[in-house]
Amino acid sequence: MQWHPAAAENRVLYYLKMICWRLLVPALLLCTGARAQWLNYQDPGIPRLKDGKPNLSAPAPRTADGKPDLTGVWMHERTAIAEFKRIFGSAYEAESEAALIGMELEAVHKYGYNVLLDFKPGESPLRPEAEAVMKRRAAERRVDNVCHGEYGWPVAGLLAEPFKIVQAPKETMILYEVDNLRRQVFTDGRDFPATFEFPAYLGYSTGRWDGDTFIVETRGFNDRTPIDAMGHPRSEAMHVTERLRRRDFGHLDYEVTFDDPQLYTRKITVLIPYNLVTDNDIFEMFCNENEKDRQHMVK
C-alpha cells in the first residue's frame, strides 16, 4: 500500500489536529501557570556566567560514582521552519497561520509527527499488518474523545511540554508533563522476565552505563499506543533501545531505536537533541479540567 503525497499530507494534518487538540490545547492553558509556580527561584546547582545567565556549556555534572548526572528538565530542540515547510508542503502556511500561541507547528518535534520521516518514498519499513492497523484505527477514531489517555512515548517527549529525569543509584525516573506519565528505569541489575504477564503502555525498562552513555532497554509493551502522531503502531513484540549522553551541562543527546519485526521490515533509529530547561520544572496536567473542546470537535 502506497500513500499518494497529497493524501499523505492530509493524513499528517488529520493526526496532527487530533494530537494537538488532545495534548497541546491543555498545554496552552497550563503553560503560563507552569512558568509561575516557582517565581524567581534560581537553582543553586546551575553554573552561571557573570551576567547570571546559566552556563549551558559548562561540564556535565557527575554523580558520586563518577557517572554523568542526567537529572534535569529537558525539552527537545525545535525543528527548523524550513523542514516543516518541506514536510507539510502547501498546507504549511495555512496551518501555521491558524495555530494559536503555544500551539505552533514548530512546538512539536518533527519525529513527534512522523517517526518515519527519514525514509524515502518507496522505502517505508511498514509491513502490510502495520498499514492495516493504521487504517482500522483511523476509521475507529472518535474526534470528540479528547482525553483518551493512550499516548505513550517517544511522542510524550516530543510535544510542546518538557520531561524531567531524576537519576538515583538503583533507579532513574522519567517524568513527562504530558498526562503526568512516568517511567521507571531500573539499574539494579535485574533481567527482563521470560514473558510479560501484564503488557504495559510504557513498557518495562532497565538501564546500564556504557562509558558516559546511559543505555535503556524497554520491552513488555501493549499494542494500544502509537509511536507518533501519524499513528504508526507497535506490537507487543516491540523492543526499544535508548541511548542518552549529556555532552555538557545544558545539552542531552538522545538516540532511540525501535525494533518490531511483526510490524516493520527493519529497525528504526532517530536522533533527537534536547536542551536543559533551567530554573523551571514540569507542571501537572489534567485534560478534563476546564475541558471545552469536545463540543466543537467534528470530523
Describe the structure.
The protein is α+β, with helices and mostly antiparallel strands. It is 21% helix and 21% strand. A 9-stranded mixed β-barrel has the order 1-2-3-4-5-6-7-8-9. Strand 2 and strand 3 form a beta hairpin. The chain is globular. The model is unreliable at 1-15 and 17-36 (pLDDT under 50).
Which helices and strands appear, and what pairs or packs with what?
Layout (H helix, E strand, L loop, with lengths): L4 H31 L36 E5 L4 H8 L3 H7 L11 H4 L14 H13 L22 E5 L3 E6 L5 E5 L17 E7 L2 E7 L19 E10 L2 E9 L8 E9 L23
Could you name the key traits of this structure?
299 residues, alpha+beta, 5 helices
Summed up:
With 299 residues, this protein is of the alpha+beta class. It has helices at 5-35, 81-88, 92-98, 110-113, 128-140, and strands spanning 72-76, 163-167, 171-176, 182-186, 204-210, 213-219, 239-248, 251-259, 268-276.
Nearest-angstrom radius of gyration?
19 Å
How far apart lie the N and C ends?
Answer: 24 Å
The sequence of SSEs as H and E is HEHHHHEEEEEEEE
Query: Roughly what is the average pLDDT, rounded to an integer?
Result: 83
Summed up, the domain count is 1
Put simply, the count of helices is 5
Shape: globular
What amount of the residues lies in strands? 15-25%
Structural class: alpha+beta
Spatial strand order of the main sheet: 1-2-3-4-5-6-7-8-9
Relative helix content: 10-25%
Biggest sheet character: 9 strands, mixed, barrel
What is the count of β-strands? 9
Low-confidence region ranges:
1-15, 17-36
